[in-house]
Amino acid sequence: MNNEMAVSPIVATLVLIVVAVIGAVAVGTIMGTFSTDVSKQANANQAGSASQTEILVAGSTTVNPVTLSAGALYTAANPGIKITSQAIASGAGVQAVGNGVADIGAISEPVKDAWMQQFPNLQQYQIGEGAVVVIENAGHPAYNASTPITYTDLQAAFGTTAGVPGDNFGTSASSYGDFHNNGNGVTTVIRADSSGTANTFYSYLGYGSSTPQQFTAENPNTTAVNGNPALVQTVGNTNYAIGFADYGDAVAAATGSLSQGGNLVSILEMPSSTGTSYPFAAENGVIGFFDTPANVTANWNSLRYVAKDMYGFAVEKNQPNLDTQTQIDSDAASHNNGISFPITLMRPLIYLTNGQPSTDVKNYINFVQAGPIDPVAHMGVFEENNDFGMTDIA
Q: Using an 8 Å Cβ cutoff, are 339 and 276 in contact?
């Protein structure tokens, strides 16, 4: 019994040692297995990420919503391809693709000769068209809405009738014409960045490639912002403000009524120097108050007609250089059954590549040109963003 009692602690100690060793081995094995599993998962994730090709599109804030919508559909159908979009304005998009930072540059205006001189290998692919519209604060409008705005009025709002950018109304109340003078004058909101929307609008007014500095130098009531969304928001938040923006961004802020609250904008008629205008539908006697879906559709269809007509004339008839208001009026009147409209306010939406694109990039461009349909919205990605795809105009 004494020997048995003497041995027991030794046996017990040996058992504890064995258990401890086995436990350590077991823990080590478990931790090793866990570590291996984590490592395998991390490697799998890295491999999956590495196997996904990213296509970076950079440029126009007008094209950005289309790229986001089309890119999501393309990635859903092609999980190995990720489309990333950066809205940095047309000019910056050209620099990004030309310098190899982006795979695709997105612009909302015709390709400039200066860009081709800087980057001679640029390849362009038109994906659609967009419209530029004039907007004002809906609650405290800049313009007297009892009469249609005139081309001269717009020149006065964004420059002078003498064609010198920057004067904006002058200093006397009489310089405002039909614009409201609320004591501080009308606030003119323009683009600060290198914008296809701005270049299109300035060209329409006869100011060519004017810079924001020219427009702000002489008028303290001019505000310059980056991007279409910021411009629309600024006009909507500023009493007696007037500006210009992409039609899609403007419609998003104009839909609804003042009784619903919020800062809204209304869209003004777009006149040409001959007095004709875009065929916008009016509601409650005001152009651009799109309280009903029917009015939104009517305006979209009207602009689509203009976009289709412009594409047929400028592209199919090979007359793309509609640079001056005189030529615009003459060309529009001669080719559209005598009906004239400010044709340069429709502008092409273009993807640019620096040289021949890769197969993945070209396949994505082809997908966008084919007019992808959003299965949730049950409409094309251009239509849901109030722009016009190649299937709408070609």
A: yes
Q: Are residues 250 and 288 in the same domain?
A: yes
Other beta carbons within 10 angstroms of residue 390's beta carbon come to 18
* Same-domain pairing of 150 and 113: no
Between β-strands 104-107 and 81-87, what pairing exists: parallel, antiparallel or unpaired?
Answer: unpaired
Is 272 among the domain residues? yes
Pairwise CA distance, residues 317 & 306, whole Å: 15
Output the domain CATH number for residue 164.
Answer: 3.40.190.10
Residue 305 CB: number of other CB atoms within 10 A?
16
Q: Which of 252, 340, 333 is nearest to 300 (CA)?
A: 252
pLDDT by residue (tens digit) across 80-135?
Answer: 999 999 999 999 999 999 999 999 999 999 899 999 999 999 999 999 999 998 88
pLDDT-derived band at 207, boundaries 50, 70, 90: confident
Residues 77 and 134 in one domain: no
pTM of the model: 0.78
Give 267's strand partners.
135
Task: Quote the distance between the C-alpha of residue 225 and its chain's center.
Answer: 14
Q: Is residue 293 part of a domain?
A: yes
Q: Are residues 277 and 328 in the same domain?
A: yes
Query: Are 76 and 166 in the same domain?
Result: no
Pairwise CA distance, residues 210 & 164, whole Å: 10
- Interhelix angle 293-311/247-254, rounded to 10 degrees, is 170
355-381 pLDDT, tens digit each: 999 999 999 999 999 999 999 989 999
Same domain, 367 and 324: no
> Position 310: which residue type?
M
Q: Which residue segment(s) compose the domain that 231 sits in? A: 130-335
Query: CB of 188 within 8 A of CB of 234?
Result: no
| Host H or E run for residue 188 | strand 187-191
Can you tell me the distance from the alpha carbon of 276 to that of 270, in angstroms, rounded to the nearest whole number? 8
